[in-house]
Specification:
By secondary structure, the chain is of the alpha+beta class. The protein is built from 4 helices and 10 strands. It has helices spanning 2-19, 25-40, 70-150, 240-245, and strands at residues 154-163, 168-177, 183-195, 210-213, 217-219, 224-232, 249-259, 265-273, 284-286, 288-297. Strands 3, 4, 5, 7, 8 and 10 form a 6-stranded antiparallel beta sheet that branches. The protein is rod-shaped and about 150 Å long. The chain crosses the membrane at residues 83-105. Keywords: Membrane, Transmembrane, Transmembrane helix.
């Protein structure tokens, strides 16, 4: 028991002595403590800067970054990488949106170009149709011109009227083929009218036409056909008042219907007027005021 009390007393004395120590001795103790700390534990330094920011290895004992705070730094690096890739994703998204907008613009331009191409195609088709119609029309015109160039053309000439009074009159004329192909003559009709004044062709009543002859014949190019007929009794539509004068003229109308080698049918009309006639003299005379007209029959009977 005595030993325990003496030890306690000694400790108390030491404490009292330490509290009573001079102030100058404190820095020395602190220096000693710092020296001891420096010998026992290295001082912390600034973490080294690493170029490789994607490194995941943790090497204990190097520094705070790679030892006790490694997990926190890894989390910070992961957040940094996440922010980086988020930014990359945002940039790529913007680029994708820009590409989509550009693609839409290109699509719109393509649609517009397609519409214009369609319009031009329609115009080209219409122009092609017009060209085809013009070509067909040109072929038709060429065919028509060829037919007109090759078809037969008739003419009447050398008309002669033999007047032997009101009871007998003879009429003769020559039909000539002036074309390049044969003419198939189907019929020749005539009418003779006495008159004092010129008779217009439009005034002729075609219902009074009478046949010159009742047979068909072929007239080659350059060929001539002499036609003559006798009119017994009074001339067609003879007016007694004119016949009484014993001095009148005869108007003769002739119509020739013929076909060409192409199967088309045509008609040739001619008319002539004689000079003064003295019935009963029996004198032949050559007619004057000759007229020729060609026409085509579109719907022949």
């Amino acid at each position: 028991m005595k030993i325990e009390y003496s030890g306690a007393a000694a400790m108390a004395a030491l404490l009292i002595c330490g509290m009573a120590a001079p102030r100058g001795s404190v820095p020395k103790a602190q220096e000693l403590t710092s020296a001891q700390a420096s010998t026992t534990k290295p001082m912390l330094t600034r973490p080294e800067t690493r170029d490789d920011r994607l490194a995941f290895a943790c090497r204990p004992g190097e520094d705070i970054r790679w030892s006790d705070l490694c997990a926190q730094w890894k989390a910070a690096d992961a957040a940094d990488r996440s922010a980086y890739w988020t930014m990359v994703q945002a940039v790529l998204s913007l680029l994708g949106i820009g590409g989509l907008i550009y693609n839409l613009l290109l699509t719109r331009a393509a649609v517009k170009s397609a519409e214009e191409a369609g319009t031009y195609s329609i115009a080209a088709v219409e122009a092609g149709n017009r060209s085809a119609e013009a070509a067909v029309r040109s072929v038709e015109l060429a065919e028509l011109n060829s037919k007109r160039e090759l078809r037969p053309y008739l003419s009447a000439s050398d008309p002669i009227v033999s007047a032997h009074g009101p009871d007998f009159t003879a009429v003769a004329l020559t039909i000539t083929n002036d074309g390049k192909t044969p003419a198939f003559i189907r019929s020749v009709k005539r009418a003779v009218f006495p008159h004092r004044f010129p008779v217009l062709l439009a005034d002729v009543d075609l219902s009074v036409l009478k046949p010159f002859f009742n047979f068909q014949t072929l007239l080659v190019p350059g060929g001539k056909l002499r036609i003559s007929t006798s009119i017994t009794g009074e001339p067609d539509s003879l007016d007694e008042a004119l016949a009484d004068t014993m001095n009148t003229s005869l108007f003769t109308f002739c119509e020739v219907e013929f076909a060409d080698v192409f199967g088309d049918k045509h008609v040739h009309q001619s008319s002539f007027r004689s000079g003064g006639v003295w019935f009963g003299t029996g004198t032949d005379f050559v007619a004057c005021s000759f007229f020729n007209r060609q026409a085509s029959l579109k719907n022949p009977a």
